[in-house]
Amino acid sequence: MGYVHDTAMSQFIPPSLFHRPTGTWTTPAGQVAGTIVEHVAAADQTGLVNIPILIPSCSMASAAHGACLKSIEIDYEVLTADCDALTFVVNKVTRGADTAVAVVAAQTFTQTPTAANALKVDQHKAILTITTPFWIDNDEYVLVEVTVNQALTTTVDFLGAVANFTLRL
């Protein structure tokens, strides 16, 4: 039986898995042939996108197995006009035990590009680097929450996300 300790694992998360509770969204073909996107229509509105970070977890009490989340990359395009604001939050959610509610804890991270540049008309790869990388326990999961505050003519396309992690099995 072997042992895996890979510090350069990545998992693509397609836009079709994104959850969009607010805003007017569709899933059309992307600007580039052969791609799909989550597209928010032009409107003076605030939309929300939740991105589930799908990486392995471990039920062992030790933090030495499973996946250690290091960073998340989100590919998106701001089209037509700059956003009024575009913000990211990385939430680690601890599942509630029977009769208990889940607990959400925002994680600290650094962001590239800067918040000011992230809302400009252009193609973007937002890189959210976790300040203190953490191992995912089997009673936890991670959601990235993106708030898109649009100007009247702004449209935004989300092309996907990538989770970068260490895998230890």
Name a few traits of the molecule.
169 residues; mainly beta; five-stranded antiparallel beta sheet; Jelly Rolls; seven-stranded antiparallel beta sheet
Number of helices: 1
Q: Whole-Å distance between the termini?
A: 11 Å
Can you tell me the CATH architecture? Sandwich
| SS elements, strand count | 12
Description:
The chain has one helix spanning 115-118; strands spanning 5-13, 19-22, 25-26, 38-40, 46-53, 66-79, 85-94, 103-107, 109-112, 122-135, 140-149, 155-168. It is mostly beta strands. The chain has one domain (17-156): Jelly Rolls. The strands form 2 sheets. Strands 1, 3, 4, 6, 9, 10 and 12 form a 7-stranded antiparallel beta sheet that branches. Strands 2-5-11-7-8 form a 5-stranded antiparallel beta sheet. The longest helix is centred in the last third of the chain and has 4 residues, at 115-118. The relative contact order is 0.34. The mean pLDDT is 92.
